[in-house]
Write a structure and sequence with these properties.
There is one protein chain. It is globular and about 50 Å long. Helix 2 packs across helix 3 and helix 2 runs antiparallel to helix 4. 79% of the residues lie in helices and 0% in strands. It is mainly alpha-helical and 135 residues long.
């Protein structure tokens, strides 16, 4: 690894996850207390359901699986390290994680293409939608 980029490992894998969790919970609590019951139910699902299905389902299944794996690894790290001590189990875990990660990326790509290609969906797409996709 290039020594000039060595500082990125602690930032990306130690600091950033905690900052994301902290900001998520802080923002959720603040929004609930300041603007309760203002969550929008504006959905593009009503405009075109078929391509929405092929973007939404893989995206959500992939995200749920990947996040669940990370939460389990965060809650029981020793057991995960013990599980990973056998190479075959480690390969199964890595391949499964890769498959669900790719599933999430494919779902995200379909959702973004749908937002760009469909005029009706593009019309109801806000700046916050694009910020969410970027994150």
């Amino acid at each position: 690894m290039n020594n000039s980029l060595a500082f990125l490992d602690p930032v990306l894998f130690a600091v950033l996850p905690y900052a994301v969790f902290f900001s998520f919970f802080l923002t959720t609590i603040h929004r609930y207390r300041a603007e309760a019951f203002t969550y929008s139910s504006l959905s593009t699902q009503f405009l075109e359901n078929r391509s929405h299905f092929w973007g939404s389902v893989p995206l959500h299944f992939g995200l749920i699986a990947v996040l669940t794996g990370h939460v389990i690894g965060f809650l029981i790290p020793r057991q995960i390290l013990l599980w990973n001590s056998h190479p075959l189990r480690l390969y199964v875990l890595e391949i499964t994680g890769l498959i669900f990660g790719l599933l999430a990326v494919v779902g995200l790509a379909v959702a973004v293409v749908r937002r760009i290609a469909d005029a009706k969906v593009r019309e109801v797409t806000s700046v916050l939608d694009w910020i969410l996709y970027a994150l």
